[in-house]
TrEMBL record:
<dbReference type="GO" id="GO:0016791">
    <property type="term" value="F:phosphatase activity"/>
</dbReference>
<dbReference type="InterPro" id="IPR050275">
    <property type="entry name" value="PGM_Phosphatase"/>
</dbReference>
<protein>
    <submittedName>
        <fullName>Histidine phosphatase family protein</fullName>
    </submittedName>
</protein>
<dbReference type="InterPro" id="IPR013078">
    <property type="entry name" value="His_Pase_superF_clade-1"/>
</dbReference>
<dbReference type="GO" id="GO:0005737">
    <property type="term" value="C:cytoplasm"/>
</dbReference>
<dbReference type="Pfam" id="PF00300">
    <property type="entry name" value="His_Phos_1"/>
</dbReference>
<dbReference type="InterPro" id="IPR029033">
    <property type="entry name" value="His_PPase_superfam"/>
</dbReference>
Amino acid sequence: MLMTKLIFVRHGEPDYSKVSKRKYIGHGRDLSELTLLGKEQARKAARDRLLDGSELIVSSPYTRALQTAAIISKERNLDIEIELDLHEWLPDLTFTFDSDEFAINASRQCAVHKGICPENIEKKWENLENLFIRANHSLKKYLEYNKIIVVSHGMLMRQFKFERQIPYCGIIEVEYDENFKWCGFIEDN
């Protein structure tokens, strides 16, 4: 059985001010770039020894993740592959949310309902198991590699290995194979 070491790196600190000023909604909010601190966080993560021996960077398509991946790529001299399904959890399946507050509220609802969106709410959010399924499907094509860096998002990373808080540019190591299973909903307590 093929086994790959996934080194998940959460993106650096984002700056939503420009997309908020332009009143972008839904996926438009995901065009947010990194702050200066976020760029420094990415440079620091690029030097982490856990990344040693990596053969490739696989990134979410969202700007904050791609910018983080680009900084790591430059420091590590690694190619980047973009995977559309490694994007962040969807707090609104209608793609009309317009604020961080909306996403935070949806995240709280997600926790209350243990990762399963109730049928009776107006704006549906993505079930956590569905988040895992789409990301897992994307990663299976990289099983021929021994070790890859996956630049993505906190909620997505938590579906592969539960961590209470994943800081910006936090790093999580996962032993991954074709039979990898979702860790399931785990309460924060």
